[in-house]
Amino acid sequence: MRARTEMLNELEAADGYLFDLDGTLLSGGALLPDARAMLAEARHNFAIVSNNAEHLPSQIAAMLADLSLDVPAERIVTAGAETLKLVSEELPGAAILLLCSGALSDFAVQRKLVPSDERVDAVVVGRDRNFSYEKLRLAANAVLNGAQLFVANPDLTHPSPGGLIVPETGSLAAAILACTGNVPYRVVGKPEAHLFRRGLSVVGTEARRTIMVGDNHETDGAGAARMGIRYVHIGEHKPSVTPSPTTGNPSLSPQAECAGNTMVRKGRP
Ligand SMILES: [Mg+2]
What we know:
This protein is α/β, with parallel strands linked by helices and 269 residues long. Helices cover 34% and strands 20% of the residues. The chain has two domains: 4-78 and 190-233, 3-Layer(aba) Sandwich (Rossmann fold); 80-189 and 243-266, HAD superfamily/HAD-like (Rossmann fold), CATH 3.40.50.1000. It has a five-stranded parallel β-sheet with strand order 5-4-1-13-14. Magnesium ion (MG) binds next to loops. Magnesium ion binds next to loops.
C-alpha cells in the first residue's frame, strides 16, 4: 500500500476525481484506510465509477452509509445499471434476456425494458449468481438468432478477501461466446469509455483536469489513459498490463473483431 501522504499529494491539483470502489475504497465490505481521507480531499468533486454488475447505486450508497460514509447514489456510477440505461436508450421497450441480479432485473423493468426468455432483442449479462446451463442455452441461441449482446463488465474473476477467486461477469459472457463463436458484443464497464464519460458528466470536469484513482491497471488505468484522464494507482504495485485476449481460449477469441473490447483476467470491480 502506498504511503498515504504520497498518494494524497498526487490528488492535489485536479478539479475532479473518479474513484474505483472495490479495492480502492472498500475491501470485503470494509472501508480501506485511505478511503475517508481521499473522499475528503476530493471535497465533493468526485464520482465513484465501479464495474459492479450486481448492485444498484442506491444499494451501494446504503452500504457506504452503514460505514458512515455519506455518498449520494447520484455520485455512484455502476456498470450494471449503466448497461441497462444504455440498452433502454438504444432499444427502448426492448424484450431482453437478463442474466443478472434481482435488483438489476427490477431496474430493467423500471426502465421499461421487458424481460423475456425468447424472441429477445438483446441479451444483457451481469454478475448472475444463478447462472445456469439453461440460461446459457437461452442466451447463446438468442444471440445466434440476432439478439445484441451487452456485457456489463469484462472481468473474468475478482479476488475474495479469503484468497479464493469470485467468478465475475466476463466469465459468464465468455461461456456464451464459447457457444456462439465469433459474434459482436458490447462491453459497458471499464476499461471501455462509457463509465468514464458518465463519471466525468457527474463530476462536471474535463478529462484532463480529472484524476482516476483505482487499484486495477487493466481496467482503471488503461481506461483512464484512453480517455486522457490521469491515473493514480493505489494498492499493491503491479506491473502495468495491456489487456489482451487470452490465446488458446475459444471463449475469448471473438475479441479481436469486437472493437477493442477485452475480457480482463483478474478484474476487481
Ligand atoms: Mg477495483
